Amino acid sequence: MLSSFCLFSFYFVPFVPPAFLYQEYRDTSKQQEIEQRRQQEGLTYGVSAGLGVTSPPALQLQLRNNSRSLSLWQNLEVVQQSGLLTQLQQREIIIQEAMFELVTSEASYYKSLEVLETHFLKNPVLVNTLSQSDMHFLFSNIEEVMKASERFLMDLENRIEQSLQISEVCDIVHHHAVKHFHVFITYVINQVYQEKNYRRILQGNQLFREAMAQLENHPCVRGLSFTSFLILPFQRITRLKMLVQNILKKAEENSEIEANAIKAHQQLEQIVKECNEGVRKMSRTEELISIEKTLEFKSKSVPVISHSRWLLKKGEVQQMAGPKSTRTMRSKKLHHPVYLFLFNNLLLITKRSSSGEKYQVLDSSTRAMLRTEDLEDQGQMLANVFNLKLLENQEERPVNYMLKTSSMSDKLRWICALTPNRRTRFMSTTSPQVQCIQSYSSQEPDELSIEMADLLNILERTDDGWMMGERLHDGERGWFPCRVVEEIQNQEVRAQNLRECQRIHLAHGGGASSGARLGSRGFPRQY
């Protein structure tokens, strides 16, 4: 257990209120980031107009230094009394704040883990409602994760106690990421089963359900759900990477702080990559097994389960009947439903059974043999219609399908997914860029889960409220509703975001992990 006398322990933290849990810190921090960009965008317009406005470093401090903000290093009484603030340049204070936030957020995270451990994991009433196997399903190796966080926080606190001016933190991050953070990978991969088993236990175990309801109503959890505590480790390792990235953006080039930040960021990115790949591998295998059980092959059977295969998109579309003639359009049976299963290397065209539980495979093709043609501007009867060409189907012959979707956005999403090598577009500071203002969890395989304050380049958009974007910090792509983002209008702010992203990936030498895909494609990039 951490010392109660330590200045930066959550038992006595002047910058984090006693009941300030990580979930609350995280939301507040992301909202601050959004507001900072909004105000910076407005002030940048002032700079363009020749107005005398605050410079970006001072702006960052002012935006955080208000009653709604998280506490700052510069607001600590010992710092203010020391005279340091008069000796340091604004950019030096900015880097102090970036390192300080990493430490304070870790203290808040550890505090939330303590609630998970003492209030849930070690609660005798709850424990007595569960079997040993269900305990493991729910909590996995969370105690190992806690120990890793405790060691990490103690080292951060010891470093900060050495001097009021924080010398460095990323060397500590790198050390712990190499030596101790592997426990995150195990925990995150187990979350695939954790969520399912929690729902199963909640539904089938009345004693557990009643005990959980009481625990979730306790004041110490601040109205937060049990599941919000279970997902903390992956949220933290991802956020920690972003905090190190923030230090790297602000560090002086060729400095020791930059060098240590690069090493820490690379190691954290590798851990996040292994977490993501582990979760995807388990989820994809389960999904393939589930899909294969529902398939009935009319003629030639196609093996679906493969370690190198995963689902990209599935859903029902309407197959138009007959050629594109007026006579056909006036016939009674204009179209009939077909159900598509699109994998990264395979397309199955199926017919759903009347029960809706089985799918008869009518045709198939490798994804490389697919071509699409948008039939826009060809009359109302062909609204939301596109041609799908199979250059070679399962019978080794070409075939064409005219398909109709339920909406324009659905049509564009299918075209994007079905076309393996779509035309590319050059990204520049004039290209649209958005920030997420409301978190969104993906509902379909081709969608992207995004968090508040995420920055994205926009690749496609529809008139009925959908966008396809690529997240700047990790290169992940997918669709999301327009309502959860706002466009960054100012070209200078967009350029700054791209420059910061470029610096991260150039610092990695192009990068080898998923999060460095931007660098591997060059900068600016082709899409």
From TrEMBL:
User: Residue limits of the SH3 domain?
Assistant: 429-490
N-terminal signal peptide: 1-21
Please name the InterPro entries in this protein's record: DBL_dom_sf, DH_dom, Ephexin-1_SH3, Ephexin-like, PH-like_dom_sf, PH_domain, PH_ephexin, SH3-like_dom_sf
Q: Which domain of life is it from?
A: Eukaryota
Q: Which keywords describe this protein according to UniProt?
A: Guanine-nucleotide releasing factor, SH3 domain, Signal
Boundaries of every PH domain copy? 310-423
Occurrences of domain DH (ranges): 94-278
Gene3D superfamilies in alphabetical order = Dbl homology (DH) domain, Pleckstrin-homology domain (PH domain)/Phosphotyrosine-binding domain (PTB), SH3 Domains
The answer to whether keyword Signal applies is: yes
Annotated GO MF terms: guanyl-nucleotide exchange factor activity
Q: Which PANTHER family match?
A: EPHEXIN-1, GUANINE NUCLEOTIDE EXCHANGE FACTOR
Annotated protein name in UniProt = Neuronal guanine nucleotide exchange factor
What is the scientific name of the source organism?
Oncorhynchus mykiss
